[in-house]
Amino acid sequence: MSRISVVLPTYNGTTRFVERAISSILNQTFRDFEMIVVDDASTDQTLALIRTLIPSTQVTQYIARPVNGGAAVARNHGARLAHGEFLAFLDQDDYWHPTFLEDLLEAFAQHSPTVAVIHADHWRIDVTRNRTKYVSTYRPPSRRSHPHHFLCHGHLFAVEDALYRASVFHGIGGFDESLRYGEDSDLIIRLNQGYEVHHLPKALVTQCRNYGLSACSATTPPEAVLSHQQAVLRKHAALCFENPQVIGSLPFYEAMLYRSQGKHVFRLSPENRLEARQWFKKSLQCKLTGETLFWYLRSYLR
């Protein structure tokens, strides 16, 4: 039985970096792991490509889902088939550094058996603007502004940043499959209720984003993201009401979401300044901030 089970959900991966993600898994310095590839009803030849990339010596399960269910469904499907003591998830757009599994497993060995998850930091590459940013996945109390920062006690990390104790992951029910966005935040909130979560301050993952540093993309309108994030907050309403900081941060979060979309639209082409201006106006209606006001005024400049 492998010590770690690595779940790779994929969808139309032939054009979305899946080769790089698989290479990063196969190049791990820690070798005692199995791979579980879940093809979420791709319409291209993703699964056929992946089979050619993974050597026959690597313990691997391949699952082809007949209907697209989204990331939460695909990850849970893979996790149910896992045999490892620990679980790790990698999205096809991103990649791990070679010591990802080794370093996080070593961190588990240095903590008590009650620790449920340990997460690392990551580098974020903005493909659109060719910029790289170091992202710490832990926020100390003085730097918390997002509602989930408070609900997650500062531990707001991406799914692929962490190594999870499998028994705990299954014990809390895995990812909430009713959520298309925010399923990762929801999982972290639940993990923080009764389990120990630790942070390893070392970048072991690289995320690649094609739409800048915004929380949204051209195909993910901020209203959709906001709706699902609000669903997460409603699900944990009791925790929200216990913490007035969460309630107070909601206008800031909505404003950030709309401002991010406006910046994305503006950067794609200054000719979109009218559309961008509408996003900045919505942001200002939520909360007046200097950054949003700057971008709103900038949208008038030729």
Helical/strand content category: alpha/beta
The CATH homologous superfamily of the largest domain is called Spore Coat Polysaccharide Biosynthesis Protein SpsA, Chain A
How large a portion of the residues is in β-strands, by DSSP E? 15-25%
Largest sheet: 9 strands, mixed
- Helicity level: 40-55%
Average residue pLDDT: 87
CATH fold-level label of the largest domain: Spore Coat Polysaccharide Biosynthesis Protein SpsA, Chain A
Strand/helix succession? EHEHEHEEHEEHEHHEHHHHH
Backbone CA Rg: 20 Å
Explained architecture:
The chain has 2 domains: 4-209, Spore Coat Polysaccharide Biosynthesis Protein SpsA, Chain A; 222-298, no CATH class. With 302 residues, the protein is of the alpha/beta class. The protein has 12 helices and 9 strands. α1 runs parallel beside α2 and α11 (273-286) packs antiparallel against α12 (290-298). The protein has helices at 18-26, 46-53, 71-80, 100-109, 147-151, 166-171, 183-191, 222-235, 237-242, 244-268, 273-286, 290-298, and strands at residues 4-10, 33-39, 60-64, 86-89, 95-96, 115-126, 131-135, 162-165, 196-209. Strands 1, 2, 3, 4, 5, 6, 7, 8 and 9 form a 9-stranded mixed beta sheet that branches. Helix content is 41%, strand content 20%.
